[in-house]
Amino acid sequence: MSRNLFKAKQYATSKVYRSRPQELKGSEEEKPNVPQGIMTKCSGCGNVIYTKLLMKNYKMCECGFYFKVSANERLAMILDENTFVEIDPQLTTRDPLNFPGYGDKLIKTQTQTGLVDGLVTGKGLIFGLPTYIGVMDASFFMGSMGTAIGEKLARMFEKATEEHLPVIVYTASGGARMQEGIFSLMQMVKVSAAVAKHSEAGLLYITVLTNPTTGGVTASFAMLGDIILAEPGALIGFAGPRVIEQTIGQKLPEGFQRSEFLLEHGFVDKIVTRDKQKDTIGLLIKLHYKEEERIVWT
Amino acid sequence: MDLTPWEKVKLARMPIRPTGLDYIEWIFKGFVELHGDRLYSEDRAIVGGLAFFDDIPVTIIAQQKGRNTKENIARNFSMPHPEGYRKALRLMKQAEKFSRPVICFIDTPGAFCGIGAEERGQGEAIATNLAEMMMLRTPIISVVISEGGSGGALALGVADKVYMLEHAIYSILSPEGFASILYKDSTKAESAANDMKLTAQDLYKFGVIDNIIPEPLGGAHNDFEFVTGKVRDVISSDLKELMSLSIDEMLESRYKKFRNM
């Protein structure tokens, strides 16, 4: 199959130059790993990897570290080539609280990231089968959910219900968008309601939890999938680890709130590495596909 | 006398303020408390049970703060664990089975943050309540009596009618938590309370709640008979209205209410 072309069998890595002063090294490591250069440094093992090879290997390092993936990169990894049709690309927040400084910060973040908000939604094909898909992008306000994300998700679920199509959502979120206050909270109900209607119509909803999935996103649509998948090692929880440590006054155990922890406690169906996600999701959609409800793809 | 948002935060948290069980005792008759989620344990941060409202059997679910330190410890300061939300859902599904309306009293700083709460799926418990309450085929009325903290409050707040007491607050996070996240300084809670728009008056203006239930001068504890009289009036007229609708009409308007937010 053509998709095997994208599975890199080899990695090109070299040791990073390690004799820098500590303080300089620290500040350099905080810089985001934007893979625009020829080489990209892994924050997990410190090795430097050819960016092209990294992309072919689904942005996974051989050490097991997962690089951040933008919404567009994610769509390219999951959907058949050139099949994605975006919906509501320009939908943005109306800053419902008129929160001090928020409007300016939004414009700045939109300019910096090239995104309108932290979620891309649309329709596409996976191995020829149509599906709706929403992908959160944690580079926009930490993927926090405000009214724009809530509205886009609700519209997508409503369209999917009308058209009898499955929905896949990739979550990546620090939780609720603080600057939109109570309206952010209400998005949890709005999206959960649209998910419930889609579910009532007997349609498939798959969530893929990626690093990090926390707060109001965990406590709404992330945990409502018929099937819940997760990327290895992703932080998934309701409260963030720092808040829990402050509340209970003790250190949290190793691996707490990671995908493997959730699997062990029964809250995740399956952990799937990035290179296997398209195969797994494609198979799950096929297992739920009803020929008599076939939608003619235009 | 207009209180500032921060004064309302402090008033809403006063230990003297009436709690869920006080409302149950004053408004309903023949309350029978029912315990446990049938899955893991009993969470005393949420009280649930059956009672008569006038002649109508109803299911009541209330987040319960303690009226003293000892009770507060037993009730975990009204911060529920997942089993609290699962007990609430069990009782709501039971209400649906027996066609009883559900009345919720919301009063929590938030869902509990701790190791056990995460291990047992706090996020999953809240998410499930949101989706299930939206589809529950019986009327739901929710009243925020003091503090409506975050997803922990919302998990009892998906209702056909949502009210707040005049000095209650309802917000995405506590003002302290909000200040700590956005201003990196939890002592800026007072200015956070201003920016957050968390008063009943703000939320009514936004259309997030259906109405405000008035309190006497100084707060609900000063004349509880007055307050419970007002709550009783609201429940009484809402039940008449909701029970006159077909269930499908009611669910359609419940969906639209939150869809438009």
Name some characteristics of this structure.
heterodimer; A: 298 residues; alpha/beta; 2-enoyl-CoA Hydratase, Chain A, domain 1; 2 domains; 7-stranded mixed β-sheet; 3-stranded antiparallel β-sheet; 10 helices; 35% helix; B: 261 residues; 8-stranded mixed β-sheet; 46% helix
Please provide the ordered H/E string of secondary-structure elements of chain A: EHEEHHEHEEHEHEHEHHEH
The main β sheet of chain B shows up as: 8 strands, mixed
CATH top level of the largest domain in chain A?
Alpha Beta
* Named CATH topology of chain B: 2-enoyl-CoA Hydratase, Chain A, domain 1
Instruction: Provide the low-confidence segments of chain A as ranges.
Output: 7-30
Task: Supply the number of structural domains of chain B.
Answer: 1
State the end-to-end distance of chain A. Answer: 24 Å
CATH architecture of chain B: Alpha-Beta Complex
Categorize the overall geometry of chain B: globular
Radius of gyration of chain B: 17 Å
Helix content of chain B: 40-55%
- Gyration radius of chain A (Cα, Å) is 20 Å
The CATH top-level class label of chain B:
Alpha Beta
Summarize the largest interface: chains and residue counts: A-B, 49 and 46 residues
Given the structure, what is the number of helices of chain B?
A: 12
Along the chain, the helix and strand elements of chain B come as HHEEEHHEHHEHEEHHHEHH
Low-confidence stretches of chain B: none
